[in-house]
Amino acid sequence: MSASMTARSRRELVEALRQRYAAATREEKIRILSEFAAVSGLHRKSAIRVLNREVEPEPPLKRAGRPRLYDQAVQQALVTLWEASDRVCGKRLKALLPLLLAALEKHGHLAVDPTVKTSLLALSAATMDRLLAPTRAVACGRRKRRAPSQLRRKMPLRTFAEWGGARIGEMEIDLVAHCGSMVSGSYVSSLVMTDVVSGWTECAPLVVRSRELVVETIERLRQALPFSLLSLDTDNGTEFVNEVLVEYCAKHSFGLTRSRPYLKNDQAWIEQKNGSVVRRMVGYGRLEVIASGQALARLYESSRLFVNFFQPSFKLAEKHREGSRVVKRYLAPATPAARLIAAESIAADIKDRLKNLSESLDPLRLLDEIRAMQHHLAALAKGERVNAPATRSEDLTEFLASLALAWKAGEVRPTHAPKPRPNRIWRTRKDPFEEVWPEIAEWLDAEPDQLGVELLARLQDAYPGRFPDGQLRTLQRRLADWRLAAASRLVFRDLHTQPPVPPSTT
């Protein structure tokens, strides 16, 4: 039949024409048949069979195949864990999920129902991306070359093709400028170091781009590394290509190389961390006061632990060319700390310290500190004079509860937040189900998988003439709110004893 006609319309049309067709003369049947075939799009022979067929009973209402309550609980728990992981992709979240879930349960932030936990751990990376897709939706001439100077000759070139057989401790280093859209004047920068093999990343703020301060910061970061520094690979900026850094590396027997000018792919590892760590944490605003450097230092104290212990990353295993197509194969996502623990070149005592530190860390507390400092940096970037936030509270219940609904506000990072939209000021209608909702809640407690159509039919039987068919969509919205509250009780520890009541406005 015609694709524009609903099943109910087709049944009504056939029922209206069947009696007329049976009692009509030959000429009238020909006319009825022609009109019916034109409207329904059926062949004349098919139309004859439909009109001559006996009356078919209306098919019974079919219920969904499996309960929705646990499905929604799994999705809500997945959204919460995705937020707690700082919104990584499905493949990285799949690798992180057992570690993250165990850490949150160990620190008392989550008490996931065993059925929900089993379903979560059984999800594939593709299924995670599919379930998180609606959540993500609600939510970026070459110069003329000069001959190398005597100083540059002391720093040999190292291209992207010469990193084969790299060892843990060979690191790339770069500066990220927090200058906003204007490069003139004084502003804060971030010194970033990343290990090529494990992906371990260290960051530190620089208030001025002094070569002595750069070397002092490198030494401070070197002391914090869980492994020995073997070599540094820099770009061609004057903050790195100078006698101070050359003498420092020679004194400690570190290798020192540099990339080719204007070829950022020679430093692909550090360039990737500049975007996924520094820009993701700090944003693109201009930071130019001493308070900004202090805020960055506090932010990096938490982010280094969060990134290195709770942020899995991909590692390229091999790539080859097939005609015009480059085929790449990646290793399973893993955190930098996990790569160090699995490395044979790392001493056993260092691995033990990394394991003990990993078990003691609370990812939710680290993320809460990161969000607080991002709020502070966003205010400083706007030119506001604000005091640094105090030490974070031990109670993370409010922050944990906000993760489940943070996706509704779109961008959650204050350093990337767009301009707020104006508040809704127009009036809304009163909820027609407000008075009878306790009775509906009792029905749902007894049978939580009832559909909105079934509930409306029961209401119409209990209260004749009070609830028209046009209020079905409103009831379905209220039912969705109830399922969301019921699903949260399966995920969060603070279970509600009273049946959830949806809001009274639409």
Features:
506 residues; alpha/beta; Nucleotidyltransferase, domain 5; two-stranded antiparallel ribbon; 7 strands; 49% helix
Structural commentary:
- The protein is an alpha/beta fold.
- It has 19 helices and seven strands.
- The strands form two sheets. The protein has a five-stranded mixed β-sheet, sandwiched between helices. It has a two-stranded antiparallel ribbon with strand order 6-7.
- β2 (189-195) and β3 (201-206) form a beta hairpin.
- The two termini are 37 Å apart.
- The model has no long low-confidence stretch (mean pLDDT 86).
Question: How many helical elements?
Answer: 19
Strand order within the widest sheet? 3-2-1-4-5
**How many domains is the backbone divided into?**
4
Number of beta strands: 7
CATH homologous superfamily designation of the largest domain: Ribonuclease H-like superfamily/Ribonuclease H
- How far apart the termini lie comes to 37 Å
Largest sheet: 5 strands, mixed
